Amino acid sequence: xxSTAPDGVAPNAAxxxxxxxxxxxxxxxxxxxxxxxxxxxxxxxxxxxxAAVALEAVAARCWQTSVSAYYWTGAHDPLVGALCAIGVVxxxxxxxxxxxxxxxxxxxxxxxxxxLTPTGQEPTCAAATAPEVPVDVVPGVQTGIGALLVAGTxxxxxxxxxxxxxxxxxxxxxxxxVTGVLLAGLGALFLLDADRFATTxxxxxxxxxxxxxxxxxxxxxxxxxxxxxxxxxxxSAVGVALVLALATVVALRATVPxxxxxxxxxxxxxxxxxxxxxxxxxxxxxxxxxxRRSGPARTxx
Length: 301
Fold this sequence. Notes:
Elements: H1 18-60, H2 76-92, H3 98-116, H4 138-162, H5 170-192, H6 194-223, H7 229-255, H8 262-285
């Protein structure tokens, strides 16, 4: 009589022993540690960006009018590096929500555009006029954005091949199409008129970046209601703070037109609030293997 065995297991093979369980546990721990490190990386990058701006301000004994203006200062390298790394983290991080993933992808792509397309040269915080000989940024933008288009197209193609198949709602499809159109529009502007792209893309991408990150916060606040009223309330508070911070700065700018640092304060507030949201979500998901759709957290081994 021939012996039988479960599918994929040779006859008379010894059953998995304690070593197999340890291997599975080690693999699961490695996945969880990688996931946690990815989340902590974004916090560290925000700290890097803030520290570079603060140290440059201390050295100059004055503040630039925006975070982007530090591109033209000694904070150039950490500013560009941090923004590029933040963009990559947002792109590779996956949520369990298709809408959140689309917002994260848009934010990540726009963060890279913001990093690679500097704002126009302005008077330094210690001078009354802009530099007499402005730097021609077009060659650098052409190289940087051209490389980004090549890498982005390749990454998008690979993702389409290997991504998990899932049923998308009509809203998911619409948001994805709109996002694709927006990014394609930026790409078309670059290919058709690199000069105009170099002078306008930064501001457009910066506004889109903050709107996309605000969408991530608000979407998470909405979805967290199925998990925990406490976390939903915390995320909602951050979302409301984002809106109030933006409205307050706009109102102050309108009533105090001589206030030169409105953009700097707005950018700093939005970056800090998004970092607060990210830290809160990291705490919420610390004992899990990754983003969850609903239900209680899984206990970490």
